[in-house]
Design brief:
This protein has seven helices and eight strands, in the order H-H-E-E-H-E-E-H-E-H-H-E-E-H-E. The chain is of the alpha/beta class.
Length: about 230
């Protein structure tokens, strides 16, 4: 079986429902990994954000504290319950964030709209991660940045094999395919990789990329803005 795939892939609707149920517990469940270092990776990545920022799959808004105060923030997630949590987090922080319920694979924003497009810890969850990366590239300005913090299959052989053995069971639980290869997904989406670093036994990736050069060519031929998502 190819890595990162399982015979029982949850559908997008199942993933949305799972996260609607999981929303009240998400922060608690993630507290330990955050303290052990994920928080610090978020801070490192997001200090590179600037200008008009789009975060896809915002979840409960765990990245919101780490954006430079000069950023104008828009964030989307497919789960209404997660967006509601992100709204609470933004209010607690006193941040103005334009939040919407939206599928990251079908972003309702015009081409080349954002200076920075962000995704953290969700490429593992999207049913079609390459389609999401292509959408992120589409809405990113040609000179803009795509910032990713992702986890995937370890580059330590023993650990990678251990992840492979448990991948299907893990994916069934929350739709998280933990043996995907983020660098390979970025390559398949045609993004231009600017910097890449691996952390924690080669499981976590901090990636900075830019849209493919072809995005500019496509847009010059004139493509219409897409429809808008549902406001939270
Ligand atoms: C593991 S959580 C990560 C949340 C957040 N990015 C973080 O770093 O904590 C995955 C998130 O992806 C969202 N999600 C899954 N599929 C999505 C899609 N197609 N479009 C937008 N959000 C999606 C889920 O609702 C959930 O909030």
């Amino acid at each position: 079986m190819p890595q990162g795939h399982s015979t029982s892939m949850p559908t997008q609707e199942e993933i949305r429902r799972k996260y609607n149920q999981f929303a009240p517990w998400y922060d608690l469940a993630e507290a330990l990994p955050e303290l052990l270092g994920v928080q610090s990776l978020r801070r490192t990545l997001l200090q590179r954000a600037s200008g008009q920022v789009l975060e896809v799959a915002v979840g409960t808004g765990k990245n919101l504290p780490y954006y430079p105060t000069t950023c104008q923030l828009t964030a989307v997630d497919v789960s209404l319950a997660m967006v509601a949590r992100a709204r609470q987090q933004a209010d607690t922080l006193g941040l103005h964030v334009h939040l919407q319920v939206m599928d990251a694979a079908h972003l309702g924003f015009p081409d080349q709209y954002f200076d920075t497009v962000v995704d953290t810890l969700a490429l593992c969850t999207f049913p079609d991660p390459v389609a999401v990366l292509c959408e992120m590239a589409r809405v990113c300005r040609p000179a803009g940045h795509i910032l990713l913090l992702e986890h995937g299959r370890s580059d330590r052989a023993w650990l990678g094999r251990w992840q492979d053995r448990r991948a299907e069971r893990h994916a069934r639980h929350l739709g998280c395919h933990w043996n995907r290869e983020p660098l390979e997904l970025v390559r398949q989406a045609g993004l231009r990789l600017i910097t890449a670093a691996r952390r924690f036994f080669g499981i976590f990736h901090l990636l900075e990329a830019a849209p493919p050069a072809t995005v500019l060519a496509d847009v010059s031929e004139g493509s219409a803005p897409r429809g808008r998502g549902q406001h939270a």
